[in-house]
Amino acid sequence: MARNPISIEVLETLDAIDRRGSFAKAAEELNKATSAISYAVQKLEEQLDIALFQRMGRRSVLTPAGRLILAEGRDILQTTRRLADKAKEVATGWEPRISIGLESLHSFPDFFNVINEFLQAFPTIEIDISECVLNGGWEALEQSRVDLLVGSPGPVPSQKGYRSVAIGRVELVPVIAAKHALASHASAKKQNIESVMRQLRRVVIHDTSFNGILRSEGLSSDGQMFYVQNMDQKIQAILAGIGIGNLPKHRIQGYLDKGVLLPLDIKQQDNAESFLAWKISNKGKGLRALTETLIIK
């Protein structure tokens, strides 16, 4: 059987070139000579009899065939990293990396202060954080894309083997920008607001779930939607006057105090309980130490 020319090393090389935009910058990241990077790519192209990169100005851009190899290759790289991490965890009981899904509604300053305290005590553990929205966090935990969820809204999925701890509620405030053309009407008393609400665009963060049922929390879905990827984008979109939406009070208190954002006098559901959650089967000592730190705080 012919030897497979696509090795882990060459996948790492392709990944670095794509991320950094040039062979020279990839060589710098990988601590190799640029000529060695060029040779590795050229050799793979010869063995596969295809072109992997094309020049566009000063950048090296993947061809369609190159993009296919890199897309599949990144899955392989992620799998091999997880394998190495698991092997180390089995040998020592301490995982080298903890992946955390951080709900977009959660208080970032409080969270990162706790993370800093944890890293002071355990400096060799790497932390990998991704932002989650609604069901996306629970899906990421189920698929083992994250080891720990912080601030995900309930209810906690049943019969999934999760350990969860309630960590309070995030106060959400429906708001409109003072600069919005309908702000004076929308922020008026309830008897005048119902007809205005139908004219207002809702700013909504995409649920980060890929396969599950998507959720939407807060304001009704009447009227047009404007979708964004994260909480920072949602805040800025509402500040710009694009539409209205629920925002965590701890993130916008300054705007409320200055009158830049105005609260809407509308009734909505009570804010959902937030949870810290992880799989019971995860026995990592680092995860246990981190969850204990987060629960205490």
TrEMBL record:
InterPro entries listed in its UniProt record: LysR_HTH_N, LysR_subst-bd, WH-like_DNA-bd_sf, WH_DNA-bd_sf
GO molecular function annotation: DNA-binding transcription factor activity; transcription cis-regulatory region binding
| SUPFAM superfamilies the record matches | Periplasmic binding protein-like II (SSF53850), Winged helix' DNA-binding domain (SSF46785)
Coiled coil: which residue ranges?
A: none
Q: Which UniProt keywords apply?
A: DNA-binding, Transcription, Transcription regulation
Q: Which domain of life is it from?
A: Bacteria
> Looking at the Swiss-Prot or TrEMBL record, what is one Pfam family this protein matches?
HTH_1
Every copy of the HTH lysR-type domain together lies at 6-63
Transcription recorded as keyword: yes
- Tell me the protein family, please: Belongs to the LysR transcriptional regulatory family.
Q: What is this protein called?
A: HTH lysR-type domain-containing protein
